[in-house]
Amino acid sequence: MRRYALRDDQWERIKALLPGKSGDRGRTASDNRLFVEAVLYRYRAGIPWRDLPIA
After folding, report:
1. CA–CA distance, 26 with 3 (Å, rounded to integer)
2. Contact indicator for 40, 32 with CB cutoff of 8 Å
3. HSE of 4 in the Cβ direction (CA atoms, 13 Å)?
4. 32 or 52: which carries more pLDDT confidence?
């Protein structure tokens, strides 16, 4: 498991709360989990957005 990744059980609890899923109005997000993990990585590592690794 990656150090900053969400476990599957954690993801299952929050995925329905995020915008951009199928059935929501507007554009569908391509990968909400990747976005959430990027936010967590940034927060934990204390790095600026421009320094996030590109997946």
Report:
1. 33
2. no
3. 16
4. 32
